[in-house]
Amino acid sequence: VFPSLAQAQASVANEVYQELGQPSVFLFCPTEYCSSLCSPSPSQSCYLQTIGQELLPGIGVIWTGPKVVSQELSAVLLEEVEAVLRRCPVIWDNLYANDYDCRRVFLGPYMGRAPGLMSRLHGLLLNPNCELQANFIPIHTLGTWFQSELGGCAHPDHAGMEAVAALEDSQGAQDGSYSPQEALELALRDWVAEINQQALEPGR
């Protein structure tokens, strides 16, 4: 019935989206949802080009970055994805995900995401560790990152954002920019306080 998988998927997604009354949040996960799954690249992928052309503009498209579990997200990559999809992507961030290997538990801060990304995103979803309590630092530091991004969005300057994006996380905070190390220290302080409070509860 359809000349390609992408056209079939876009047609079905569009029909469901319209049948539901075009809800404000409607997400589509493409078959090629990261750069490593694209052939030969996101910008040259016939599949993604069709999705970008055929999918109704109100539908959000999920993207995980260069890989399924991406250590870094750059502004340059997001610009490429935005161009081919004709919309800002919704990042499904698997930085902390460990459902594929439960021996791996990431307790570090939210990092590897260039400053100024918020202006290039339609949304961000964090895929957490399977162990509930192991997500205190990931979620806490994500909140700190988000607050720093909101501060940066208050005075959008794309040229300035490009310059800031080139700085490595190890350089620390500069005028309110996000510092993974400082975010980690804040999260650890609050986590210790939370643990101490739980220890005082009756029956703990």
From TrEMBL:
Coiled coil: none annotated. InterPro entries: GH, Glycosyl_Hydrolase_84, O-GlcNAcase_cat. GO terms for molecular function: beta-N-acetylglucosaminidase activity. It comes from the Eukaryota. Residues 1-150 form the GH84 domain. GO terms for biological process: glycoprotein metabolic process. PANTHER family: O-GLCNACASE, PROTEIN O-GLCNACASE-LIKE. This is OGA GlcNAcase. It comes from Hippolais icterina. The lineage of its organism: Eukaryota, Metazoa, Chordata, Craniata, Vertebrata.
